[in-house]
């Protein structure tokens, strides 16, 4: 089934570009930019990928992102991810990037964007992969910082297909960002948001009602609220689920306990995505294979998950 899953056309709608920074590239960029790393070698870094929760992962994620300094760095990061898409049958992708992760340490916004855009354009021409870039706000920082980032991004409005909300979920509900998302909507930018990973179903309701999102990123804790499930089914709200990520971050203790196929069978509009593949052990194909190995995943379910991903795209495909 691996070959069939590889060939199956699919979109990826939940991928953080900074989370696709493989250890080999991380070390290469550190050497290129003269940055001293806290790990002795690649294997030492891989051994650090042992998280007990989302925050432990994020601490490592932000530390690794410090090697990204130049336009070429961001190009190389994005191109490496897009090459992986081509290998795995991903025909369309809508990656997130976190400008605050870079601008707060002195990397100009336009440097980050230029490198990413150049790689996305090359992938359209050379690999046939269509895309739409999503600018994400860091929810552990104040809304004022998100608003400043939005204002900084507006001169490049045509570069983005949506805005998003990510980073530490617990204690940072979507309602804290209602004004910045309203401002983005006024500029014609639709919204997506991480909700219902570590946070409760109430955070999903807030993302829907206050931020007026077009997709929920993660959303697996919707399973705890029957009224919410009914609402999501009735509205066919896309949920971009990331199984390997959920297991690595202890949302589920084992892949065999994951509810994504139950959600699919209940009529929820779920798709399969990789989240931060360099840190969680796999890209989209590996997520499909993990479901096949542990649940198991049927061809009909796989095809429906892939169809859901393509249909939920915000940017034009092809």
TrEMBL record:
GO biological process: adenine catabolic process; hypoxanthine salvage; nucleotide metabolic process; purine ribonucleoside monophosphate biosynthetic process
Cofactor remark: Binds 1 zinc ion per subunit.
Site label Important for catalytic activity, positions: 218
InterPro entries, per database record: A/AMP_deam_AS, A_deaminase_dom, ADE, Ado/ade_deaminase, Metal_Hydrolase
TM region positions: none
Keyword Ligase attached: no
Documented EC number(s): 3.5.4.2
Keyword Cytoplasm among record annotations: yes
GO molecular function, one term: adenine deaminase activity
Active site: 197
Name of one Pfam family that matches: A_deaminase
Any GO CC annotation of this UniProt entry: cytosol
Adenosine deaminase domain sequence ranges: 9-316
Keywords, comma-separated and alphabetical: Cytoplasm, Hydrolase, Metal-binding, Nucleotide metabolism, Zinc
Top-rank taxon, per record: Bacteria
Binding site for substrate: 276
Catalytic activity: adenine + H2O + H(+) = hypoxanthine + NH4(+)
Cofactor(s) essential for the protein: Zn(2+)
EC class (word): hydrolase
Annotated residues for binding of Zn(2+): 14, 16, 194, 275
Function of the protein: Catalyzes the hydrolytic deamination of adenine to hypoxanthine. Plays an important role in the purine salvage pathway and in nitrogen catabolism.
Family according to the record: Belongs to the metallo-dependent hydrolases superfamily. Adenosine and AMP deaminases family. Adenine deaminase type 2 subfamily.
HAMAP family: Adenine_deaminase (MF_01962)
Name the UniProt record assigns to this protein: Adenine deaminase
Top-level taxonomy: Bacteria, Pseudomonadati, Pseudomonadota, Betaproteobacteria, Burkholderiales
